[in-house]
Here is the input.
Amino acid sequence: IQGLVTLQDLLEAITGEFKTPSVDDSWAVQRQDGSWLLDGLIPLPELKDRLGFAAAPEEELGRYNTLSGMVMLLLGRVPHTGDIAKWQGWQFEIVDMDKHRIDKVLASQLPEKAKDDGEAHSGGPGDSR
Here is the structure.
């Protein structure tokens, strides 16, 4: 239709073009210290792109499709808030759970010295490490 002006057209003419919120923007936020706050439901391809992974653990087996699934595979169980999984020089800390679903994960690169430490451990209350 030619010649039709919508309310959105008028508002954009006054205030500038609106940016439509993108789902991709909500998956991952890089923090000032270089760490990433990630949604547990971030798809594996998006996670690999954001963090620069060539591959993910046991990816070829197709056992998971999201960051949450990857963290559960690394831990070998359903995690709790505060649990930490380490893989390939990265640390994945569970910072928020929604019942039994991983909601938010803080991913940060480990210093060179710590990269050879264990694969996963629990950092929750009662952990003696």
Observations:
- The radius of gyration is 19 Å.
- The CA atoms of residues 78 and 100 lie 7 Å apart.
